[in-house]
Specification:
The complex is a heterodimer. By secondary structure, chain A is of the alpha/beta class. Chain A has helices spanning 15-29, 74-80, 105-113, 119-130, 136-145, 151-167, 190-201, 215-228, 238-251, 261-277, 304-309, 325-342, 352-356, 422-441, 465-477, 495-501, 524-531, 551-559; strands spanning 2-11, 32-38, 45-55, 66-71, 84-92, 100-102, 187-189, 205-208, 231-234, 255-259, 281-287, 318-320, 345-351, 358-360, 406-408, 447-450, 456-461, 482-487, 489-491, 513-518, 539-542. An eight-stranded mixed sheet of chain A has the order 6-5-4-1-3-2-14-7, sandwiched between helices. Chain A starts with a strand and ends with a helix. Chain B is an alpha/beta fold. Chain B has one domain (17-271): Thiamin diphosphate (ThDP)-binding fold, Pyr/PP domains (Rossmann fold, 3-Layer(aba) Sandwich). Chain B is built from nine helices and eight strands. Chain B is globular and about 60 Å long. Chains A and B meet through helix 9, helix 10, strand 15 and helix 14 of A and strand 2, helix 2, helix 4 and helix 9 of B. Strand 15 of chain A pairs parallel with strand 2 of chain B, so a sheet runs across the interface.
């Protein structure tokens, strides 16, 4: 069984703090967690909410209906009460009737804790009472969270929790809640997973310009920069950011930048530069709906074809699109390894949904395990940077190691110097292009979930993984025969492998229906699959309202 | 395929000021005792930006206007390298203007040698950010209206570590300025080098500059910011050349605690 708690209020009211407190405590209690955020592009006011779904089995998606709504403002109550499930309960900071418990959250916090800030502790106490949970794990966690702030802060927060629970006592245990296992579950957000993977892989320079929803990774990197020995620099603009990491990569350290669609648009000439100079750079492109400024704090998958095609001229690149925090960790590392093995730009696609998503994640390796940069320690006396090879990969040296390293954005000869020799141009373009073949050969195959001989196959990429997986389970529970194919790497694509995975390679009868599920208008991944010749017939389930897919939504649409 | 001839000789017009700058750069590298293995010449795009190809050094010839962020990334990755940007006024003051401003603020140890001929050469004669008002081109057909960038003044306002000007027609002076710049260790260097363009600038000719440049007086205190700024604003019958301004501001990289343990490259290698 599972249950969804929705904390809603104005920006600046502690919605995120309350949600975070619940997530951390539930995970320590051994509940499975899937938490998502919905917020506006403002610092104060408006209506934000934080959904915490808990279950006695792993969860893969959010859902629309809340079983318990904590409304901190009248607007939150008015907007979200209609989306409370039958039998659900509401906690409102004010007076209310029916299925609603009125608790003056801020007033109680002031009275008991001496500050309105502790309204989140009052709310958490009320939530625990309504779910019939023992308060001990919550107060224990407050001891951990406020250890540095001292005994007084802890006591006040605990008092607020207890008072919140008392105020909700009349309906204590009125919601059927999943039973905690007592065995702590570790959780991670997509943001933390990417940041940790990058730091542990040995990224030494991160240069970025802040842009939602990528800023979290940039902030995470800054928070661990001293620990891992990393320079984190706020560049004057995205153009500077991408050129800084090109410079750092040239000089010999793994380097990355973080951005969203608009910032990536500014970086595009730099992507082409990395293609020409054959520099290993990693760009985190955390998507939000466009065009232009679009919906800054919402989610979408509209930048797939942009990432795959970004940059003038033709050059090899890889694009990864993890579907969960755990995958985000592993694919961030793989993206860095791919960039270095093939001396090419690599793009990691995230989006607001996955960046902010917090869910069960096995412990992620935090120890520094530097990737292989594939650099010559002692280049030979006759070293040239762009020696022509079968694989297209030229032995790479860095400045200061005994041989001149010459790179040029102009077409160049093997020694890196500018040329207008057209034979050299063809030779060097062919060399660079050959790398794409090797990258294609080692492209990650899509991962399948569900029945091996399913009649309906859902195809998805990136953050749609979890909701599609839940949809497959829902369809199967309803007697349908469904499976899912998720692409964690969306470029390059090994067409033969993709056709085989989709049951479209001319072998045994494949699925009757293929539905490509993605967060954009035009069906970009479906178009890409058709472009490379991996797919001819498919249906599409697209969504572009700025909110993430849910499992129930996909199941409904596929059923129809 | 018809393959037109291509060689590695400089792509500059005979008589171009870039030849003198290249020759003096080579001399200054030797005179300052710079280890060429640890020297990286960085440039963007333009005629001056081709300079790194014609000498012996590590070279990063990047995108138009983007020499400074690339140079910053190189310096941060390995602050043991001597990172010198050799590029033109269009590249550095125009397309890369935002990077100039913020590199000066950062005071990262990157040395800019800007070949300033007050005109766009590679695109054939349009106005540059330093073209004087009234300068007529095929685009600015009624003459330049925009106020010129005053690079030295801009650098002084942002407290740049070392600000100087020289003239490609005075090789002895230019060498002295380049050597002083290469020996400087405090942070960002801006050396603006006046340079005639014989093909596209018929106003600011060799003679025009020659008649106007005058070395700053020996009693000028480059640490006096107000006087330096006044000197930097002088542009007319007399144009001061020499070390205009110096600051005691520590370099960006010297203030990053993480770099105290060694360069990032060294730290990465130590961890493997």
């Amino acid at each position: 069984m599972d249950l969804l708690i929705r904390i809603a209020g104005e920006a600046g009211q502690g919605v995120q703090t309350t949600g975070g407190l619940l997530v951390s405590t539930f995970a320590r209690m051994g509940l499975h967690v899937f938490a998502t955020q919905s917020y506006l592009s403002r610092i104060r006011g408006g209506l934000n909410w934080y959904d915490v779904r808990i279950g006695d089995a792993p969860l893969f998606s959010g859902r629309e209906a809340a079983d318990l709504l904590v409304a901190m403002t009248p607007q939150a109550l008015a907007t979200l009460r209609p989306h409370v499930s039958d039998g659900g309960v509401v906690v409102f900071d004010g007076e209310c009737e029916g299925n609603c418990v009125g608790i003056a959250l801020e007033a109680v916090a002031k009275e008991v804790g001496g500050s309105a800030v502790m309204a989140n502790a009052v709310a958490a106490g009320a939530v625990f009472a309504l779910l019939g949970y023992d308060l001990a794990p919550l107060t224990e966690y407050l001891h951990v969270q406020f250890k540095k702030k001292g005994a007084e802060t802890i006591e006040k927060n605990v008092a607020c929790v207890e008072e919140g629970a008392r105020r909700a006592a009349s309906r204590a245990g009125s919601l059927a809640a999943p039973a905690p296992t007592g065995k702590a579950v570790t959780v991670s957000s997509g943001t933390e997973a990417v940041g940790l993977a990058a730091a542990a892989a040995g990224v030494k320079l991160a240069a970025s310009y802040p842009m939602t929803p990528s800023t979290g990774v940039f902030t995470y990197l800054a928070s661990v920069a001293d620990e891992y020995g990393m320079v984190v620099e706020q560049a004057e603009d995205e153009i500077a950011a991408v050129n800084m990491i090109c410079g750092a990569a040239y000089a010999g350290v793994p380097a990355m930048t973080t951005t969203s669609g608009g910032g990536f648009a500014l970086m595009v000439e730099g992507v082409s530069l990395a293609g020409m100079l054959e520099l290993p750079i990693l760009i985190l492109l955390s998507q939000r709906p466009g065009p232009a400024t679009g919906l800054p704090t919402r989610t979408g998958q509209q930048d797939l074809l942009f990432a795959v095609h970004a940059g003038h001229g033709e050059f090899a690149r890889a694009v990864f699109a993890p579907g969960s925090p755990e995958q985000a960790y592993h694919l961030t590392r793989r993206a860095l390894e791919t960039a270095h093995r093939w001396q090419s730009p690599v793009i990691l696609l995230l989006d607001q949904f996955l960046a902010d998503l917090v869910t069960d994640t096995p412990p992620l390796e935090a120890a520094l395990r530097p990737i292989d940069r594939h650099i010559l320690a002692r280049p030979p006396a006759d070293y040239v940077r762009y020696a022509v090879t079968d694989s297209g990969v030229s032995p790479r040296a860095v400045p200061g190691s005994g041989a001149f390293v010459v790179v040029d954005s102009d077409e160049h000869t093997e020694d890196g110097h500018i040329t207008e020799d057209l034979e050299a141009r063809v030779r060097l373009q062919d060399k660079r292009s050959r790398k794409a073949q090797g990258m294609r050969a080692e492209a990650l195959p899509p991962e399948r979930y569900g029945s091996p001989d399913a009649e309906t196959l859902l195809v998805c990429w990136g953050s749609t993984l979890g909701p599609c997986r839940e949809a497959v389970d829902r369809l199967a529970a309803g007697g349908a025969s469904a499976a899912m194919l998720h692409f964690g790497q969306v470029w390059p694509l090994d067409v033969a492998a993709v056709r085989k995975a989709m049951g479209r390679d001319g072998g045994a009868a494949g699925p009757k229906r293929i539905v490509v599920v993605e967060g954009n208008v035009e069906g970009q991944f479906a178009a890409l699959l058709r472009q490379v010749g991996a797919l001819t017939d498919c249906e599409r389930a697209c969504k572009y309202d700025g909110m993430p897919f849910t499992g129930e939504e996909i199941a409904e649409r596929v059923k129809a | 395929m018809i393959n037109p001839p291509s060689d590695n000789t400089p792509a500059w017009c005979p008589g171009c000021g870039n030849f003198a700058i290249l020759k003096v750069l080579d001399r200054a590298i030797e005179a300052a005792g710079v280890d060429r293995d640890k020297l990286v010449l960085v440039s963007g795009i333009g005629q001056a930006a081709k300079t790194p190809h014609y000498t012996r050094a590590n070279v990063f010839n990047g995108l138009h206007g983007r020499a400074l962020p690339a140079a910053t990334g190189i310096k941060l990755a390995n602050h043991g390298l001597e990172v010198v940007v050799t590029s033109g006024d269009g590249d550095m003051y125009g397309e890369g203007g935002n990077h100039l401003l913020h590199t000066l603020r950062r005071n990262v140890g990157v040395k800019m040698f800007v070949h300033n001929n007050q005109v766009y050469g590679l695109t054939k004669g349009q106005a540059s950010p330093t073209s004087d008002p009234g300068f007529v081109t095929k685009i600015q057909t009624h003459g330049v209206v925009l106020a010129p960038v005053r690079p030295l003044a801009l650098a002084i306002v942002e407290d740049c570590s070392f600000v100087a000007r020289s003239f490609a027609g005075d090789q002895e002076h230019l060498e002295a300025m380049m050597v002083a710049a290469l020996k400087h260790t405090g942070g960002t260097v801006l050396l603006d080098i006046l340079q005639p363009c014989i093909s596209f600038n018929r106003v600011n000719t060799f003679k025009w500059y020659k008649d106007r440049v005058r070395p700053v007086s020996s009693d000028h205190d480059p640490f006096d910011r107000a006087k330096a700024l006044a000197l930097a604003m002088e542009w007319g019958e007399e144009i001061p050349i020499g070390v205009i301004y110096r600051s005691k501001r520590p370099s960006f990289e010297s203030q990053l605690g993480v770099l105290a343990k060694g360069t990032l490259v060294e730290q990465f290698e130590a961890a493997t």
